[in-house]
Description:
Layout: E1 2-6, H1 16-30, E2 34-41, E3 49-52, E4 55-61, E5 65-66, E6 69-70, H2 73-82, E7 88-92, E8 110-113, H3 126-142, E9 145-148, H4 151-160, E10 168-170, H5 177-182, E11 191-196, H6 205-212, E12 219-224, H7 230-239, E13 246-250, H8 254-263, E14 266-269, H9 278-286, E15 289-293, H10 296-305, E16 310-313, H11 319-331, H12 343-359
Parallel strand pairs: 1-2, 1-7, 2-4, 7-8, 8-9, 9-10, 11-12, 11-14, 12-13, 14-15, 15-16
Antiparallel strand pairs: 3-4, 5-6
Helix pairs in contact: 1-12, 6-11
Amino acid sequence: MRIGYVCSHYLPSRGGVETHVANIASRVAAAGHVVEVLTELRDRTLATTSTIDGVTVRRFIVPLWWQPYSFSPALWRYLASRSGEYDLIHVHNYHALSSPGALLARRCPLVLTPHYHGAGHRTLGRPLHAPYRSVGRLLFTRSSRVVCVSGYEAGLVRRDFPHAADRMTVIPNGVDPEPFRKSSPFNHSGTVLLTVGRLKRYKNVHLAIEALALLPPAYSLAIVGDGPALPSLRRVSQGLGAGNRVTFLGSVSEENLCRWYRTASVYISMSEAEAFGMTLVEAVAAGSAVVASDIPAHREIKEMTGASAVRLLSPLSSPGELARVIEQAAASPHDCQARLPTWDAAAQQTMRLYEDVLEDGPAGLAHR
């Protein structure tokens, strides 16, 4: 098979969608298929074409962009003119403007993984969701299969796009435990707290900083990731006098990411919305205690893994309440023998789904 993956961000950028696509795409390539990722180019130091873990990555320049909704006309043109070179195109992230461009790929079937949160998260973005939904509905209609990463996400999709329910399946994200188990923690004194992911307002990383300011000086916070909320988070840490206890690491290598997970005593995610708690699974695999927002996706992870290390509290909790739970988590032993979904299983299920779509033949294009 020749598979094209469409996503707005890709490695070395860090985030849940990037992690998902990289793990599936690299395993599909390792199985002997030809795999390309079609993504947007913001960092002009990156090559427009490169190979990562057997996957060809094509990056298309974004001439004008407004975070978090970027737009690359070159990517859309490529999809319109070159879709015939692929047996199948797998589109990721309903919320990204790279995804509607796949509607121009008229010569091969589409698979959609929406990573769907429902409404937009930004004050400016929410009003655009209503008109955008009509375009999004076309994307769901055109897709031969819709892959959700959790039962919670599937429920949201079923609610908002009921016409796609008969083509929907759930394939949970996974984790590869071995790199975490083999990684050595960094030499770090005190109690290290960690948060990982795209730095966006709805992720509520500021709550972790505000809680840190209330904790004893032995506590420190490492923040992995980049994004539009970074400047405001730096201001929060400086304003609270916690600047010397907060480390903004930006994007890190896979090896160092595993080491940071191993270093952390407590992993924190106070996000308002997630389709799947990817970083929670990674933290559990590394043996960290987890303090997370009590949202449906995180509840599903706690139930799925059976991890006693996962503590949930309201995303509206005060910094004081969060600090109290962090101290409890850091001081309490927990069971690390969690039931973890794997990326190998997710990739196998995804490849079987591709085969089913291609076996449908012309029927795979019937949902135009």
